[in-house]
């Protein structure tokens, strides 16, 4: 499948950082980080293919499709080398990009993600459900995993974000995750990496991020308390300063 031009929003000034969203979300999932990041970086937020305002090609997709889209985006913006921050599916995209195109990635932050997520059949089943019933069929269950039991914010807008995801886009990305296994590529990654886990994340628990941090040379691990899968939204007071501190290191 060929790369596509994804929808992107560019703000701020300074070195470029690309923010890659999770399955079922849009570039707005990073809203809690933007005001601070814009003071340090040119912030490139985009909607993964099949999500938000990006085109929705027919699936299935592959992780290389998603990485190709980022390369095309960087080329379109005239950015030769960028930091990349990805959560969940966005983290998978970031890992593949850093392993495959190391010249394009300066520093990397991986949040609440995994080098592989088994069993593959569970993702195939979710893709089939969404294709038949729409993304709204999984929205409530997905958002239950995004936030810890103690989260006091309004989950309604997050459920609406998932429910609005085009069914083919959501399903196509499920199929990319189903066939994903980056575990043998991690040791080849040269970008200085920070892995961030939510202590209460049932989808990608801290052990998943520990595996990544142990495999990528010199990577560091941060476990965020009172956070589940969307740690950046639940605990921005911890996550945002950690992002900035890591990305600003020379």
From TrEMBL:
InterPro entries: AB_hydrolase_1 (IPR000073), AB_hydrolase_fold (IPR029058), AB_hydrolase_sf (IPR050266), PcaD/CatD (IPR026968). GO terms for cellular component: membrane. GO terms for biological process: beta-ketoadipate pathway. Keywords: Hydrolase. Gene3D superfamilies: alpha/beta hydrolase. The keyword Translocase does not apply. GO terms for molecular function: 3-oxoadipate enol-lactonase activity. Residues 15-234 form the AB hydrolase-1 domain. The keyword Zinc-finger does not apply. This is 3-oxoadipate enol-lactonase. It comes from Mycobacterium aquaticum.
